[in-house]
Amino acid sequence: MNTMEGKDKTNVDKNNKYDRQLRLWGDHGQAALETTRVCLINATATGTEIMKNLILPGIGSFTVVDGQKVLGEDAGNNFFLTKDSIGKSRAKVATDLLAELNEDVHGDFLEEDAEKLLDSNPDFFSQFSIVVATNLCERALSKLSNHLWSKNVPLLVCRCYGFIGYMRLFIKEHTVFESHPDNTHEDLRLDRPFPALVQYCDSLHLETMTSKDHSHTPWLVILYKYLQEWKKQHNCKAPNDYKERNKLKEMLKKGIHRNEEGVLEDEENFEEAIRSTNMALVPSKVPSEVEKIFNDPSCTNLHSESSAFWIMARALKDFVDNEGEGALPVRGTIPDMTADSERYIQLQQVYRKKAAEDASKVSQRVQQLLHSIGKGADDQVEPLRPFMPSPSSDGHTSLFSSVGLISEHEIKTFCRNAAFVRVVRCRSLVEEYDNKSTKLQELVLHLDDEEPDDAVFYVLLRAVDRFYEEYNAYPGWYNDQVETDVSKLKACLTKLLQDWGLSLNIKDDYIHEICRFGAAELHTVSAFIGGVAAQEVIKVITRQFVPFNNTYIYNAMKQTSITLEL
Amino acid sequence: MAASIFGVFDEVTQNKIISSKVLVVGAGGIGCELLKNLVLSGFPDIEIIDLDTIDVSNLNRQFLFRKEHVGKSKAQVAKESALHFNPDAKITAYHDSIMSSDYDLEFFKKFDLVMNALDNRVARNHVNRMCLAADKPLIESGTAGYLGQVSVIKKTVTECYECQPQAAQKTFPGCTIRNTPSEPIHCIVWAKHLFNQLFGEDDPDQDVSPDTADPELAGEAGKAALESEAKADAAGGIKRKSTQAWAMETGYNAEKLFNKFFRDDIKYLLSMEALWKKRKPPVPLDWNNLPQDVPATTHQVAICDQRLWSVQECADVFAKSLSSLKEELIKQGEGGMLVWDKDDDPAMDFVTSAANIRAHIFGIPSKTRFDVKSMAGNIIPAIATTNAIIAGLIVMEGLKVLREEFDKCKAVFLNRQPNSRKKLLVPCQLEKPNPKCYVCAPKPEVTVILNTHKITVKVLEEKIIKGGLGMVAPDVEIDDGKGTILISSEEGETEENTEKFLEQFGINNGVRLKCDDFLQNYNLTIIIYHRDKLEEDKEFQIIGDVSEIQAKYLEDKENEDKQPNGLTEKQATEAATAVEDEDEVMLVEEEEIQQITVSKKRKHDEEPEVVNGDTVKKQRLISDVAEHYDDIIS
Ligand SMILES: [Zn+2]
């Protein structure tokens, strides 16, 4: 009894503490966050800022890997390394201070150089949900990214270099169904009404209703009826251009009741019908992004190792090709509208019921597919995500691990988001570093311009890495060598471009500027990247929103940013 | 010391930073991040002010605070935490309102730069005026969920915070709340008013009883007026004493309160037959005879946040919260009262249950406690990451301001995800000041539409000049050649005027009032525009630009000619929702119209922590908030 109360108390505390973010990603997003293990390589200012923004919202645990001692310059720009800690282990000091941010998050550290650790115990890194690395040299980065790529562990690389912020995401395949696109249409099917909808609309008769009922009939029903009327007059065709839609709206306007004096009544529902006409007449079709997923080899060629996502995607495709008659399962939600609650709820039920029926057909197909790839009831399928929420009897979303069969709840969620499912595949570092990469040709297209876009900094940072490889120092690191470093960096850039087989003229101003930065990490740039990077990690963990693919560059001088695929 | 800034920053910037003194207004989500960034960028002298104390719901992002700090001053704890990490910085903290007269022109003149990290429009307006008066550059900022923005304000160079009309706060006509609710929000507002009537300060604008002066009852007006006193008495016999006194006498008896508000008052509403000719009439509920058609999901006892409650459960929570609130009130002793707070569980339980019972009575869909909380508390979701990004941007703009490179300053908008042009950040050119702005124009003027026979001096002062026009302590004089003083900021000097109508001072159409706020160093001329009746039964309307009135009334007239409830605005909204494949003509229209629809879409988010959008395009960003937010939590 006592433990129950204790547990409830913790939940209440957490709900209050996390209230403002639960409203963004929901309980299931929070649950995913709380089971995440994050590894930070190098407790730089950028690194600790990222961790701060992950610890505050409540990840499960974090581990800092860093072999260095705290230096004076660290204490100057890193909030989590204090002056009195100079000379101590950077991993330990940062971990201690970061852990103070949230008592529900467990912190841990390893005082060891990441590159050495990679050589001695590479599997150490495979235990994490995601690895965040800052200020790694090219050689160490290659090793790390190749290793994690082979183990399917996502890696986010971040770097702040003077006024430039840089991020690169390595993730082999990331599937999302709550992608939250910026513009979504309601899924109302007025262009292809399903039988239950037809039946319900036909059961209501606008002509014989009292004026009270007339003005409280859901606009969906009204629009359906006027659309049928229109079709009758137009060879069974729906209005298909601006002019025709306006004519339909005119018809609707004429349907508004008038009072005894002939003045139009205030019928909000008709006005809503008129307002919604354009939106509701958009034909129901499979979005091109989803079409791409259907044609993906992972979808068309299921095998015994296929993940739950692909099995469901295939079931969805088969549904569309068969009983769906070319359309996705009905989403099952309708927008708010002026209506009496009785009929609103009835209409809602019509859609919900259809959605449930569609989902159960998809579910049957999932079972068949599982069977066909030799998965029995007790076999495991690679889960969609570590945990899936499921409404338990008390209405609370409780959690259970979705090992084994794909749950009905997962399938329902998948169907409800069918139009928004996405797959992100980043390119590997090997692909990026391939001198023949066609992405490089695209990248440098506009860099000759008087005002090149921020992609120019990608090229410059690569030149900086080459500089480091050759001289084991960063250009402009020593104040008295800035001038000589300028010509050295220029030479590195020329060689880099030669290797790429590109001729490109980058203005000297940029070279000077990069040298002036002297690899310094500006706190305010770190703070910015700390926010953006943590947000990307949250996207990956919660599987909500689509993470960037695959490179992000921030220019603090101009307050601009760009995403590139490299 | 922030070693790394040297070398990266040029010498001019370094010197500007070292010799600067800056003010941060607000120690919340953005404020904490900003304070840290400033300290670690080498700013040597920082002052920070915040009136608030720390709440547990701040801890997910305001990283300078811990659990043990809950209840303490934000500004003070922020300072201490920052110093703990970085003892070299000089930070001065004020646990106070920036609107207090202690922070006068002289105070603002000390600083080279002021940075707002606020969450409400009232304080933003005030700081805007103080910075204009002191001629100090101001950086405005705000976040809402994943969205955020930063902007620079410099007198005579850029737009000020009030250059563009601000979306009016959504209010609901009293009779909708009291007589004819049709949406969940109406019931929630009513329940909050009920809370204040029972436990809080008595505010006649928050009456919860049936409103016999409903304009829809016009036909029966004479009769209603005559009988209203008697009828109100009949409806519970409590009209003559305050609701609170009566409730206290019953000992906050749940049954008695329930039957009064959900049975007798509803029966009385039903007797106003005119209201129900075209509406579904409400169904009174009786404490002892509650519907028991319990939804399928409610087998168990647990009452939780994200599940809809049955009527019986609502009644139980109603009773339970009543008794907790009664205890709290008693603890306060004689003359005590409670202030409604979304983070106080009994207060939140009370509003959720009362709102849902009322919703049931009127056949309005009910809402979960989780959703009621966000609607009743105007909750704007907030996370650490967005604040970190915005605070980073603020410092970068701040450096340009210190170098006085105002031509390079930008208004920067943060998108939820990279837009179609792959940009997460959208920097925009700063707008020039609006020559007709009633705050920063050389001779500020504003027009107020009202009925001079119905507006008292008190309403003019409290609701229009303070509430609407953001003054703190105004002196108002009639520009009648005689210099008649209407309102004095000295207490007691003009008290005899307060209950009189404007018309009694000869204030009618076209009369000019000269207002002066000493603290804000702000003079404003109000031009009175008399109308017998205002649209949507508003009490008054503030119009920044006179030409808008002409346009507005021309349009109104057109509508009147067409039909009583002109469709034009609705048609406008329609264009805004036009689908992508729409003809070009429509898309042009969409651009222009977005501004109108913003306030509609955002009806539950009255105070986003976002700077009020300056242009049409910017407003769209913000308007996304509510829309999208709905789709995430659903
Ligand atoms: Zn202005």
In short:
The complex is a heterodimer of chains A (about 575) and B (about 625). Chain A is of the alpha/beta class and about 575 residues long.
Strand and helix layout:
The complex is a heterodimer of chains A (566) and B (634).
Chain A (H helix, E strand, L loop, with lengths): L1 H16 L1 H16 L2 E5 L3 H11 L5 E5 L6 H6 L12 H10 L6 E5 L3 H7 L9 E5 L3 H14 L3 E7 L2 E7 L3 E3 L18 H8 L8 H4 L4 H15 L8 H13 L13 H13 L7 H7 L2 H4 L7 H14 L19 H32 L14 E5 L5 E5 L6 H9 L5 E3 L4 H4 L5 H6 L12 H16 L10 H19 L7 H10 L5 H20 L8 E5 L4 E5 L2
Parallel strand pairs in A: 1-2, 1-4, 2-3, 4-5
Antiparallel strand pairs in A: 5-6, 6-11, 7-10, 8-9, 11-12
Chain B lengths: L4 H4 L2 H8 L3 E4 L3 H12 L4 E5 L24 H12 L4 E5 L10 H5 L3 E4 L4 H14 L3 E7 L2 E7 L20 H5 L5 H16 L21 H14 L8 H7 L4 H18 L39 H21 L13 H17 L7 H8 L7 H19 L7 E5 L10 E5 L15 E6 L6 H12 L5 E5 L6 E3 L24 E6 L4 E9 L9 E4 L2 H17 L5 H9 L7 H18 L14 H18 L1
Parallel strand pairs in B: 1-2, 1-4, 2-3, 4-5, 9-13
Antiparallel strand pairs in B: 5-6, 6-7, 7-8, 9-14, 10-11, 10-12, 12-13
Zinc ion binds next to loops of chain B.
Family (chain B): Belongs to the ubiquitin-activating E1 family.
Protein name (chain B): SUMO-activating enzyme subunit
GO molecular function, one term (chain B): ATP binding
